[in-house]
Design a protein that fits this description.
Layout lengths: L3 H19 L19 H5 L9 H4 L6 E3 L8 E6 L2 E6 L3 E8 L2 E7 L8 E7 L5 H17 L3 E10 L2 E12 L8 E10 L5 E9 L8 H6 L3 E2 L2
Parallel strand pairs: 1-7
Antiparallel strand pairs: 2-3, 3-11, 4-5, 5-6, 6-10, 7-8, 8-9, 9-10
Helix pairs in contact: 1-4
């Protein structure tokens, strides 16, 4: 059986990204720690000692923009709405919702035939969701998932008609500690809504080489602000 570590990596990385993004202009959510000392933020860990905090432009993505075509509906699905977000979920799948605190919620969409979630997304309800905060969230995700062994990573601007600002990270993630573990290809998109009050990070995964045409990516493309 695959380790729980590899089933929860995307969730941990997404939460790290959202917590980092929330530090932009607002107080980060409280996450219980096993020690009395508050953990350093991802931004503090990225900065060199005695160096000034990086500016937004140092975190901004580069390269050609990835176009994500919005999908309104998929055959055999029904809309799932919660926390101001709507997404189409196949009727055979289930959604697990975990509220980490009053501002931060994690959702995972599971196919009953798979151990890992096909799609995972986190929602943070904040007063100030800025482009800079989205940039920071995407860097924190990239740092966290890279430390877990992800490779072939690229972080680029994303154009998505249902969201005013988004950053996409594409990667390949090994699913074990063996010499040649199985891998998944994944995409994670950090974004904000038009009102500037909600951050979202969403990840979809599939077998290597199959992500672009996968059901997981199609589900991701249905994500939108609830009406």
């Amino acid at each position: 059986m695959r380790s729980t570590k590899f089933r929860s990596l995307f969730t941990l990385a997404l939460v790290a990204g959202l917590v980092s993004g929330c530090t932009e202009g607002s107080e980060a959510p409280v996450v219980e720690s096993s020690t009395s000392e508050a953990p350093a933020s991802p931004l503090e860990e990225l900065a060199e000692p005695d160096e000034p905090t990086p500016t937004r432009y140092e975190f901004a993505p580069s390269g050609e923009s990835l176009v994500i075509e919005a999908v309104e509906s998929i055959a055999g699905t029904e809309p799932y709405e919660s926390d101001g977000i709507s997404i189409q979920v196949p009727k055979s799948m289930r959604v697990e919702r975990t509220e980490l605190d009053e501002h931060l919620t994690v959702f995972a969409i599971f196919d009953p035939e798979r151990e890992r979630a096909l799609v995972t997304f986190t929602v943070s309800d904040r007063e100030k969701a800025t482009d800079a905060a989205v940039d920071q969230a995407s860097v924190a995700f990239e740092t966290k998932i890279g430390a877990a062994g992800a490779h072939s990573m690229s972080r680029v601007p994303a154009t998505w008609s249902t969201w005013p600002y988004a950053v996409a990270t594409r990667l390949t993630l090994p699913l074990g500690d063996d010499a040649n573990p199985p891998e998944v290809e994944a995409i994670s998109v950090a974004l904000r809504n038009a009102k500037g009050g909600t951050y979202v990070s969403v990840t979809a995964e599939a077998a290597p080489g199959e992500l672009q045409e996968s059901l997981a990516f199609e589900i991701l493309r249905t994500l939108r602000p609830a009406a």
